[in-house]
Write a sequence for this structure.
């Protein structure tokens, strides 16, 4: 099963993907996580991507398309994968078709702008293992420390107020057209993320059955 998790930053795509890893038994591929790793390693890709990411802009298509193509060719993607945060532009979506990467379902995660801003501004991530927390909704057992690996929890630079507005604008302009793109293909399913988390997880499992 090849899935795309589509939706604005902060809507909960990554959180849901991580919670369903066992049930779905396919890897979550987050271009955001892969790019943050590249920045941490200071690789050539990381150096190029950093300034775009810090300011809340999209990294150029050719860079993320290469990254995804390489990642999907790994052995662990043979039975399927969840693309989380890719595609984010029409050319990125077209690149999947050009490379004969078939998508079975696109889950369109929906929340109000108020909810999204509240989720983004309270989000903390583990510097070490990328686990996702929220200071109110999903707090760690010990403040500032990851429950899973003991790593330090940090606020992403792009979750600070200046970058949040920019990212939501970028989403509207460059990513939202993908809703229509996949609706026309008949593979889009809406997921209402204003519901309690167990209901959201159920809705996702039902949508991909
Ligand atoms: P995310 O963790 O998905 O919110 O991504 C964090 C940042 O990484 C985004 O704001 C972009 O700068 C960059 N990024 C992640 N995925 C993509 C993508 N598919 N296309 C372009 N830039 C991306």
């Amino acid at each position: 099963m090849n899935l795309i998790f589509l939706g604005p930053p902060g809507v909960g795509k990554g959180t849901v993907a991580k919670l369903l890893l066992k049930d779905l038994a396919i890897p979550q591929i987050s271009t955001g996580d892969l790019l943050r790793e590249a920045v941490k390693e200071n690789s050539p890709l990381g150096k190029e991507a950093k300034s775009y990411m810090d300011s809340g802009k999209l990294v150029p298509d050719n860079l993320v398309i290469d990254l995804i193509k390489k990642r999907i060719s790994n052995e662990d993607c043979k039975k399927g994968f969840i693309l989380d945060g890719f595609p984010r532009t029409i050319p990125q979506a077209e690149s999947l078709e050009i490379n004969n990467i078939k998508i079975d379902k696109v889950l369109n995660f929906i929340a109000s702008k108020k909810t999204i801003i509240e989720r983004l501004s309270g989000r903390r991530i583990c510097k070490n293992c990328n686990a996702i927390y929220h200071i109110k909704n999903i707090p760690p057992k010990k403040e500032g420390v990851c429950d899973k690996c003991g790593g330090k929890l940090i606020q992403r630079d792009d979750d600070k107020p200046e970058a949040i507005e920019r990212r939501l604008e970028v989403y509207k302009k460059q990513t939202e057209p993908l809703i229509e793109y996949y609706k026309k293909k008949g593979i889009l399913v809406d997921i209402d993320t204003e519901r309690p988390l167990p209901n959201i997880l159920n809705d996702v499992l039902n949508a991909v059955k």
About this structure: Residues 98 and 138 are 39 Å apart (CA to CA). Residues 2-26+79-112+168-207 form a domain with the Rossmann fold fold (CATH 3.40.50.300). Residues 9, 31-32, 35, 52-53, 56-59, 64, 85-86, 88, 92, 158, 167 surround adenosine monophosphate (CB under 6 Å). The two ends are 10 Å apart (CA to CA).
